[in-house]
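OP here, attaching both records as promised.
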Amino acid sequence: MKQKIWLGCLAFAAGVMGMLPATASDSVVNLYSARHYESDKALYEQFTKQTGIRVNVVSGKAPELIERIRREGEDTQADVFITVDGGVLNTAKKAGILQPLPAGAFSQDVPKNLRDRQDYWVGLTTRARVIVYSKDRVNPGALSTYEDLADAKWRGRVLVRSSADLYDQSLLASLITINGYEKAEKWAGGIVTNMARQPRGNDRAQAKAIAAGTGDVAIMNTYYIGQMLNSKDPEEVHVARNTGIFFPNQKTTGAHINISGAGLTKYGKNRENAMKLIAWLVSVPAQEALSNGNYEYPVNPKARKNKLLEEWGTFRTQQIDFSLLGENNPNAIRIFNKVGWK
């Protein structure tokens, strides 16, 4: 069955592009990626095994890769650009390093809201930024919204990452989009007042601080809890088992989600192979592998989610254009600096 789906994906890409099968001189695709997960590496190896197309991966931070591709111009070796965060994808688009995908490409595999409106990128996975809480000290019935975490009842109890973290920049950018600048600033100031400690560490560090009793609630991405529950480190497993996940704003604007996505570079030399790679990444087998390997949500509605994600259930999500995360990023940074979110 998976083989049939895979062949269908290649047939779709070939139909869009008018492709011919790859030849010995046309057997490579160069990928510049800001994703750094073992699950991705395994997928590229599987893609090569099934197609004979070698995937050369250049890894780095998204801003550095965007600048490198922009600087290289027509001489770039990059064929595909992959990154996390809708705002960063919009930055890449505005920087002029991407070219539009064929009109309607991948529309049967990826919903419209998870693709760029002008087809400059297509989503690969999503992740939710949620409230994680101590099962011992917090009644989930006391949780409700992101906005409520700024209430005085959470004073000295909230754990967050640094304002330099893209995940929280995009969360604040989404709140600016939904609630307006003034309300978003008031919220950020309330979070600073309620912090259990100065921001530090990654999402895992926030969960460990809950376990240590430093704070009671944290803002985290869902996939970190999935990774910790299935970690080889017994401490991480223990920490994750003693924290709960709460999807906020279910009666209002929905939980904040962000996206990983891929686009064709403007001057890529291996466009056909690039389309084949993207087709593979949004196919059902690859989508299920990404969900099982990294505990992210598939963008392809036909793909099954990891069992853990199924157990967490369905949830309402923010309904905003991902490009607005990038448009409001400067405002988010301005607010962080003003309210003292270090």
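Record two, same layout:
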Amino acid sequence: MNGMRSRLHILAMAVLALCAAYLWGAFSHSRNLWPIEILRQVKDSSLVHATDQTIALSQYDSLGRLVFDPYKRQVECPVQSKETGVLLIMGQSNAANSGQKRFTTRYPDRVVNYLDGRCYVASSPLLGGTNHLGEYITPLADQLVSTGIYDSVVLIVVAVGGSPISRWQHDGDINEALIPLIKSVHTKYRITDAIWHQGASDVSQKTTTKVYVASFRSLISTLTALRVTAPIFMTIETRGCQDVGWAEDNPVAIGQRQLIDNEKIFFGANTDRIVELKDRYDTCHFNEAGQLRTAEAFAESISTVKNRVASKHGAQLPSKYDERL
């Protein structure tokens, strides 16, 4: 009898565990929470470029950002001149090594990934982002060099997959992590451009326009206090992995557009439009075509703003710039 009760008890616990796993799976799938993003990436073995050994030897910080990869090649950090671009990339998964294609810079002596006082040849995955796949930041930097916008580019990544904007506002954990990081960067570099690529998580959480705008302005206040005066390039990016019910003019996208003032915050890329579902290998993360299209859009926007700032009379932005909104 005791044996039967024991087996029934074990069976009941197993059923409860399965139910709990199912409920968490349904909840996390609907909100793109851990471990859904990782499972999507490993679903197709062709997307897994890193070996288990590489990932096992890699190191991550408390936010889950990649801070050590055994195959990164350390190089001497470039000395910043007026022709050096220092890009700060902030956001969630599409800025955080979740792309299908891995890239290595075509300019290993001029495009580097900076972290904790050291520089490495820029290559996917970039140090400073969560996940271990590809990204569009390296080809963006290559375009900035190949088109003569900058002679060299330093990439600083703070990107956390699945992060809502509440984590980036004042008192959020990512906001607090930014403070020592940027202070450390300022001992060597002045940030020339910042990219903001986030929004899908807040659509799933039904964040209102008012809350999104206020939260982002809170982040801006933190950056301003840290003496980051660089133009910020806003991404219109709100497509999540669950496209059911998604509309282009959702509250988050409206908030992102409202924030663009062409003084401090500029249009960067509308990936809701230029990266279609066919360009997203799992309905939300970019494939190679989407990565390259995004890199090209940001390169064009950075070039436009840089030329405007350089203009003696501060000429108005060309109409093409506004049309992309």
